[in-house]
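Translate sequence into structure tokens.
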Amino acid sequence: MELKDRIAAVRRAAGLTQEQLGELLGVSRQAVSRWESGQTSPDVSTLAALCEKLRVSADYVLLGREPAAQNGGNAAPFQHCPLCGEAVFGNTCPQCGYVPGLSRDDDGKRYALVTTTPPIQKTDYEEDLLRCCGIPREDGRNLLKAAKEANQCAVLRRGLKKQEVRWLAGHMRRLYGLRIVEDRGEEADNLSSLPTAMELPPAESAERREGIGFWGVVGAVVVALLILSFF
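Result follows.
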């Protein structure tokens, strides 16, 4: 993940639209859009405000890593991604790209992501189900077949925290019609009948645009933040 991707990731994990993040930081939605497409990068003071308001570390936003844990300077050996189940060494899941450390906005409730409509015809949906939800390819093919042939709803993931379910919904929204419902331990077959618990976040865009001179900008921001840290 690059800087533009990490800015988008922390915004979605916080459940914010580009416009809402812009309002929080005192910039326009267009400015946030340019950051996330790699056309420009936020200045040092704006990056600092982003990290403070979204409660994420500058090490993650700028470098893609968290500071070492305080237990003698050694980070935990690994954790499991709450979305796809992949082992995470460090900070970012190598399979789906989620950052487990972002799940700090915990309202005490747990949520499930359920489908409402079959996916649009596409041949590699099972790859998306594997990557984002940890659903094995064969199970994913069966789930897609049931959705298309019998118009059956499915539970993509359950037992997720608020930020986790919103991040997953943003990435899976281009595949399915989705709803987020509160998961109180009901049988899986009953989850699809529950009322909607929160609005869906914006869909993850499939298009990625590269910024000109991107790494030069990142380098300058990193150096500036390091200098500021000494004052």
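Note: Residues 67-76, 205-218 have pLDDT under 50 and may be disordered.
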